[in-house]
Fold these 3 entries.
Entry 1:
Amino acid sequence: MNLRVFKKDIEYFVGEFIDDCSLFVAINPHKNSDEIAQIIDEAVDLYNDLKSKANHPEGNKRAFYQALTKEMFEKLDALCEKLSTIVSKAA
């Protein structure tokens, strides 16, 4: 895996998630904005953590980046579940 492509993937996927959160707040400005802000903060922390880990690989690089990709999608999936729960409460 190319490091440059992986970093772009991090930016794309985490950025799209943050855009989804921002869109919900824009459409529903008075509903659960504090909870959404907390989720956005978690996404930004995830972004920073993944970028930091990507810049400092350990051991076999191929296996490291595969594990990091898996971690990224698992954590983004968990954040999506949190967002879905908040959105369904607001509906």
Entry 2:
Amino acid sequence: MNVTIRKIGNSEGVILPKEVLERHNLRAGDTLHLVDEPNELRLRLHSEDPEEFERKMKVARERMKKYERAYRVLAQ
């Protein structure tokens, strides 16, 4: 899904489509967590401590890399 960065007052922002807001039960004023990585930006629902979430994701990425061959075989 493509979105465009738009001028909003003196700032710039992204407008999320209505379908996405409804699907995730989001409203104006809700907080999202922005993950800024090389070549990637991700928005996450703000449901837990961002540092704890990133620690869990680091462990998950390490496991996925370690067992990549097995995961590929299982995915077939």
Entry 3:
Amino acid sequence: MHRKNRKWGLILILSLLGLCLGLIALFTVINLFVPGQTNQPDQLAVVDITRVLEAQHLRQELGDQVFPGLGIVDIPALIYNEENAFLIGIADPQTGWVKVPQELGRGGEWQTMPPLEAYPQEIYFRSGYDHNQEPDAFTVRVGTAYVGSLPSADWFRLSLMNQFRKDLPGFLKPVFPYSLVASIFFPNSDTYLSMVQHESFHAFQAVWAQPRFEAAEWDGIRLSDQYPWENQAGIDAWQQELDVLKAALKSQDKEEIRQLAQQFLDHRDARRKSMQLSADLIRYENQREWVEGMARYAELETWRLAASDEQYQPLADMHSDRKFKEYQTFDNRWSRELDQMTRMAEDEGDGRFYYSGMAQAYLLDQLHPSWKLTLAADPMLNLEDLLRQALTVK
């Protein structure tokens, strides 16, 4: 009996070893055909234009449910790849674009592109840029217009794979499953459309609340290096906050949500006291939650509404996009977001604020549904202050 067990154990080990070697060989071959650049960096594909138009359609139809005024603000798009930036939504653009809030000029003259057969009325422009000054995935200004700026879907995937190539040790580079991992981070066009909403919301913030937007960005630039990212006690305390936020977002019981929201605020107060955070660094936390947490909320809430609103219909041209899932993958994205939230405590950078700000916005939807009107009227309010106010009213 023991010999038989050892025999089957050896067969299993050899089978697993063969499977591993087979996968290594498969990924090595696949990697030979993974491109390092986009197919036509000098122009946008039809599907790129279609996605931008669908993102605008989403915002016009659902934007005011996401945040007051978002549906009526005209927000052009700047889509870039490894060589060029493309501008959609401005008829006669001034030269280049401006990086905000530093007011740094970027790009050059805009060249009018030949109309695409699928969109003969859609005028768009191209400008090259210095490779050391790639546009930001954020908002930029063209003339006086704030524009949502982000990479094309293809360049986003390739940039992600290129970053893995850069960071991996040499022996892993030939065999790493770049395409597979990129598809996990960027599985479909729904994901890309939500990214457009995120960056467009930054443009909206710059229009709706320019003084706070600029102050928040300058705080992010000046105070980030002062924040105690590696303080282990702070990391542990942040973990408690994020765990409580996740539990609150998963709860269906209104009273439990209230209790968990209060626990979050109590943990936050205790963490700041124990870490002896200065007023500047407390402001830094609030500013990043206002800028990035609100944008993450807009990104996800637009997707949720598109999935749940039976009246919403995507543009007909989106059905030719094979990667478009008609927003029906929202539940999967939401589950991943909740899981990722509790992994952000050790993140060195402002990624945790994307989640803590987004979570507070969703809790406010539950506890104080008119919070958006209050914030729209007074953009200097912090999300945590609105949450404290919500908990004082039964």
